[in-house]
Write a structure and sequence with these properties.
By secondary structure, the protein is an alpha/beta fold. The chain has 18 helices and 15 strands. The chain has 3 domains: about 1-80 and about 180-280, Rossmann fold (3-Layer(aba) Sandwich), CATH 3.40.50; about 85-170, no CATH class; about 300-460, Rossmann fold (3-Layer(aba) Sandwich).
């Protein structure tokens, strides 16, 4: 679905934002960041290609006139229109798809991923890829491949049901290749993964430079999500193989990568990015929009703000609060933020946990708040309990408001906080509770930390710095000579093991 907004201005720098599940169809930190860029650069012409769920999601942000158009690319819902290719075209697509799958499952064949991906992109532009992936032939290719001797996935005994499931997941994940890619300007993917697919197609077809900004590490979050996904290992091997090789191709082909923190940079370099093509750009806030909060509440209160989502790990926060309340019976936990569509079950699980622990009367889910500053002001201490983050807006906003914070040691949290807040290990209720109790018991320390936190934001993390940096990048990239990266790919990340913060083995 496309929304066009007036005549295109001539002479303006053009940027196509590539998003997934965020701006302009939902709220959240990445959407706030996109809106900041758009609103802060009225001299730049923006388009948006937004990967969405069903395509029926409304635009929830007020778009200024210099956003020329929004194209929604639904990953779910009704399949795209098109027809199965015939004859030579069908044989060529079958060969490309077999090469694509082989790269996902055989480490010796990974060099074939990129040419196969771009062959699939050409088929998608002809409306042929989705019908092919929904055909019996696509299933036959996969079942024949992963039963070859020597492939590790064969040892897991893949079934026909596994093949149907894996093929369906790939068909949905590859749908963004059918979106018309930008032909001029800069393609700015605001996450890795499927949002970058139209940008890679634009680079391959039209030489449009690709700019990649990762707020969280997309590949790491896919590993975390698939850890508990209800799929057998053969399905995970295919899908995670796709995300891993897609991350590597995006890192290698991007003209510039602008992670929001140094932690992301390590993943990007490990995934194949040229270190010279990486430039850290921190998120920023307007200190005037987040002034020092007023007096603290008289009742000892922990506040939290964000979207209600498993990656925010509210269960650990609720368990930590139970330990806090054992010491401070009057304590309260106030949770501010909306629940994304489809996330109602997680919120209900968190509410049930609070009730099970005997604290339903003191834990309140208060939904979206008209002014997010009120969420930070509501607490003596602002909490962040996530298991994955980039450079979280809620943290630097709370810091700008002069509130002391307790945060989990993920992503760029330590870079944001410095010594102006307490940082604890993720998924550790006891450590989180102990840190919160230390601050609740020491008002002078809270006050000193809050003042230092606001000063840190003013000195290092202002919105003006962020916008000026990206404006300069947007002006710079179209004038670079387009060329394919020649950086050799390092040893790939293991398909089933993730190292670093939140390590796991699937």
């Amino acid at each position: 679905m496309s929304h066009h907004r007036g005549a295109r201005r001539t002479g303006a720098t053009r940027v196509t934002l590539l998003t997934e599940g965020t701006y302009p169809h939902s709220h959240g930190g990445v959407s706030v960041w996109c809106d900041q860029l758009v609103q802060g650069m009225p001299d730049v012409e923006f388009d948006v290609v937004a990967v969405t769920g069903t395509g029926r999601e409304p635009v929830v942000w007020d778009l200024p006139a210099h956003v020329s158009g929004v194209r929604s690319v639904p990953m779910w819902g009704a399949p795209p229109e098109g027809s199965l290719p015939r004859g030579r075209a069908r044989r060529q697509l079958t060969t490309a798809y077999e090469q694509f799958l082989t790269a996902l499952l055989d480490p010796r064949a990974e060099d074939g991923f990129a040419p196969a991906l771009y062959a699939l992109a050409r088929a998608a532009s002809d409306d042929a890829l989705s019908p092919f992936l929904r055909s019996d032939q696509a299933i036959t290719v996969l079942t024949g491949l992963w039963n070859r001797p020597g492939l590790a996935v064969r040892e897991a005994g893949p079934t026909l049901h596994d093949a149907l499931t894996a093929t369906a997941l790939l068909e949905h994940a590859l749908r963004p290749l059918a979106a018309p890619p930008p032909e001029t300007g800069v393609a700015h993917a605001v996450s890795g993964g499927v949002a970058a697919l139209p940008g890679l197609a634009a680079l391959e077809r039209h030489g449009v430079p690709l700019l990649l900004t990762e707020h969280g590490v997309y590949l790491r979050e896919r590993y975390l999500g698939y850890r508990t996904a209800p799929y057998r290992w053969p399905v995970k091997a295919v899908v995670l193989g796709f995300f891993r090789l897609l991350a590597g191709e995006t890192y290698r082909r991007a003209a510039l990568i602008t992670p929001g923190n140094r932690y992301n940079r390590l993943w990007e370099e490990e995934g194949g990015a040229d270190p010279e093509a990486i430039r850290t750009v921190y998120n920023g806030v307007d200190p005037a929009a987040f002034p020092a909060a007023g007096p603290e509440p008289l009742t000892p209160t922990l506040s939290w703000a964000g979207r209600v989502d498993p990656i925010k790990d509210l269960e650990t926060l609720i368990r930590a609060f139970a330990l806090v309340r054992a010491e401070l019976p009057d304590a309260r936990l106030r949770l501010f933020g909306g629940t994304p569509r489809g996330g109602e079950g997680y919120r209900e699980r968190c509410e049930a946990l609070a009730a099970q622990l005997g604290h339903a009367d003191a834990v309140t889910f208060e939904g979206r708040v008209d002014d997010i500053k009120d969420a930070y002001a509501a607490g003596n201490v602002v909490m962040l309990s996530s298991i994955s983050e980039g450079f979280p807006f809620t943290l630097i906003e709370a810091m700008s408001c002069g509130r002391a914070t307790v945060s989990t040691d993920v992503g760029g949290v330590r870079e944001a906080v410095g010594d102006t807040g307490l940082v604890v290990a993720p998924r550790d209720p006891a450590a989180m509770a102990a840190a919160a109790l230390r601050l609740l018991a020491d008002a002078p320390r809270r006050r000193a930390m809050g003042e230092a936190a606001r000063l840190r934001v003013i000195e290092q993390f202002t919105l003006r710095q962020t916008i000026d940096t990206f404006r300069a990048i947007y002006l710079e990239l179209p004038h670079l000579t387009p060329e394919k990266k020649t950086v050799p790919a390092p040893a790939p990340l293991p398909a089933a093991t993730v190292t670093g913060t939140g390590s796991l083995a699937l």
